[in-house]
Design a protein that fits this description.
The protein starts with 17 loop residues before the first helix and ends with a helix. Helices cover 75% and strands 0% of the residues. By secondary structure, the protein is an all-alpha fold. The relative contact order is 0.12.
Length: 230
């Protein structure tokens, strides 16, 4: 199998789902290579991505579900370009880390916008409940993930063999976009929220378990050293 050429800016993220790794990554690299010698800045790319993301949320809210779903995939394709462009141009900043917070914000906005449209269309409150549960589960596993990174100094997704495999199918915005598209194409968008909630719940269980397991093991390894110092 032909291996993709490795570029200096192509630093794989710890969290890398199937779509991000096999589809987004080569497209991001292609776009970054063409922007490297232009006046386009990473901040401009970030701003454009966020504007497109909230436009997608607006499309969901007003019931343009196919258009919103397609635009969501475009946002996913462009989302990693700003970081790679910053590394390619030597313009990385600590402020740039805020990108992940804004990513999470528009991810939640998509779920809420879709749920509000379905609620207004049917009067059924279940879409609101499903979106709320999805946001709770996503928030929990993101916190587990971030806690592990801060505590252990490395990403949970690359810490062990199990994690390296699971990260390809773990709940991520890119894969949630697939749930939305399938539900819309089937004419049953409520399925999208149901399957996203299920996917997020399973991911939160796995991440909670693996985070607790590894942190507990680290504590046990540390205990003999502490006892020797007493």
């Amino acid at each position: 199998m032909r291996r993709m050429k490795k570029h200096s800016f192509d630093k794989e993220k710890g969290a890398s789902d199937l779509l991000a790794y096999y589809v987004h990554r080569p497209v991001e690299n292609w776009i970054t290579l063409r922007l490297m010698r232009t006046d386009v800045t990473p901040n401009q790319v970030t701003l454009m991505v966020n504007l497109l993301a909230y436009f997608a949320a607006t499309l969901y809210f007003f019931g343009y579900l196919i258009q919103g779903s397609i635009l969501s995939f475009i946002v996913g394709l462009l989302d990693g370009v700003d970081g790679k462009l910053a590394r390619a141009k030597g313009q990385t900043t600590k402020l740039g880390k805020m990108e992940h917070a804004f990513d999470l914000l528009f991810e939640f906005t998509w779920l809420i916008s879709l749920a509000l449209f379905l609620y207004r269309s049917t009067g059924d409150s279940s879409p609101l409940i499903l979106s709320m549960l999805s946001i709770l589960f996503i928030s929990f596993y993101r916190y587990c993930y971030d806690t592990f990174s801060r505590t252990m100094g490395t990403s949970l997704d690359i810490y062990g063999d199990f994690e390296r495999v699971f990260r390809r199918i773990a709940g991520r915005r890119n894969l949630y976009n697939i749930h939305i598209l399938i539900g819309v194409l089937l004419g049953f968008p409520l399925y999208s929220l149901m399957s996203i909630m299920t996917h997020a719940a399973l991911t939160s269980i796995i991440y909670g378990w693996r985070t607790a397991k590894h942190l507990h093991a680290a504590d046990r390894e540390r205990q003999p050293a502490i006892l020797r110092q007493i």
